[in-house]
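Is this the right way to post structure tokens for a design question? Let me know if I should format differently. Anyway, here goes:
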């Protein structure tokens, strides 16, 4: 699948990695997961082994097997499967990149190494370049997530001249709230066909205004359909509807953020909404509490985000 790819756009679900109660990867439900995303959420792109997928908590061989399962089960159903291959060890990252190419993934993404860190742009670009070179035919995306990596080199600075160093560079996954940096990434690269994928789901509308061409996020697993309504409203320049949709999504995210929201909670919500057992996360994460799940369920219902037969009439909060 190394032929030139059509641009990655629209929604991309950052997938969770299903696990058994004993903490082993539950490969057997990935086929159902693909069908759920496509049929129930209308989401046809996935980002595998990233933050939400606990990629950095998996062994290299587990990461390879998870990637293989998504590629196998997603064949002829998904549009694009991007594999996150970032690692602290350049060698491991290269091995994962090469593996992604061999199995026919559609792209690879890499975060900045975050223990021994690159302290300037040139060093970071050199690291990324070495990874990209292990899979030169695969579209390469830089995954900017400074709050988690602690690497705060601005994306705008990183993108300057990057294609000279990394010919397969295809875009940016921007998981930060600095819209000045994001806007300048778009503004300074208008002539290039880069994908600008935004990664803060609660602020996607602002990023669309700044020129985002798509979005990668955890909530598109279960709010994909809702978020598509916002994208469609934005496309037809119905900004007031688009804002209503964003506010509805924000009401949910704001609610769960206050309860404590992360990968564990995403797994619990996704289990609840899809009916597919995603299982607990792996240590150091802890399983979401029953109380969290009950509260999240009630909120999803009150916002009309879940099909529910016993909603009270005239529920003022419901979002259409
Ligand atoms: C840190 C993190 O996991 N960010 C995700 C993707 O980048 C987002 O999809 C968030 O989960 C989402 O925006 C909710 O805050
Ligand atoms: C959210 C996201 O993009 C990730 O899980 O990596």
């Amino acid at each position: 699948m190394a032929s030139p790819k059509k641009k990655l756009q629209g929604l991309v679900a950052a997938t969770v990695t299903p696990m058994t109660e004993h903490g082993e990867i539950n490969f057997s439900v990935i086929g159902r997961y693909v069908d759920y995303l496509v049929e129930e959420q209308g989401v046809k792109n996935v980002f595998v082994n990233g933050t939400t997928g606990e990629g950095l908590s998996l062994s290299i061989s587990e990461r390879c097997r998870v990637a293989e399962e998504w590629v196998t089960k997603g064949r002829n159903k998904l549009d694009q499967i991007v594999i996150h291959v970032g690692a602290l060890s350049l060698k491991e990252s290269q091995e994962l990149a090469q593996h992604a190419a061999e199995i026919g993934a559609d792209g690879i993404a890499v975060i900045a190494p975050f223990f021994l860190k690159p302290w300037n742009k040139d060093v970071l670009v050199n690291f990324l370049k070495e990874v990209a070179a292990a899979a030169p035919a695969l579209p390469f995306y830089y995954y900017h997530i400074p709050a988690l990596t602690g690497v705060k080199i601005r994306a705008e600075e990183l993108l300057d001249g990057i294609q000279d160093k990394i010919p397969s560079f295809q875009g940016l996954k921007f998981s930060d709230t600095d819209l000045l940096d994001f806007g300048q990434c778009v503004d300074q690269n208008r002539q290039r066909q880069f994908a600008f994928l935004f990664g803060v789901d609660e602020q996607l509308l602002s990023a669309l205004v700044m020129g985002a061409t798509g979005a990668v996020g955890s909530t598109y697993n279960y709010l994909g359909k809702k978020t598509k309504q916002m994208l469609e409203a934005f496309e037809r320049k119905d900004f007031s509807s688009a804002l209503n949709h964003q506010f509805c999504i924000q009401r949910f995210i704001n609610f769960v953020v206050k309860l404590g929201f992360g990968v564990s909670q995403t797994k619990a919500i996704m289990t609840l909404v899809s009916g597919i057992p995603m299982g607990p996360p792996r240590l150091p994460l802890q399983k979401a509490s029953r109380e969290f799940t009950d509260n999240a369920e009630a909120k999803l219902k009150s916002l009309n985000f879940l099909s529910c037969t016993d909603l009270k009439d005239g529920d003022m909060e419901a979002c259409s």
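Format looks fine. Someone answered above. Worth noting: The chain has one domain: 10-237. The pocket of 2-(acetylamino)-2-deoxy-D-mannose (ligand 1) is lined by residues 14, 51-52, 175, 199-202, 217-219, 253 (CB under 6 Å).
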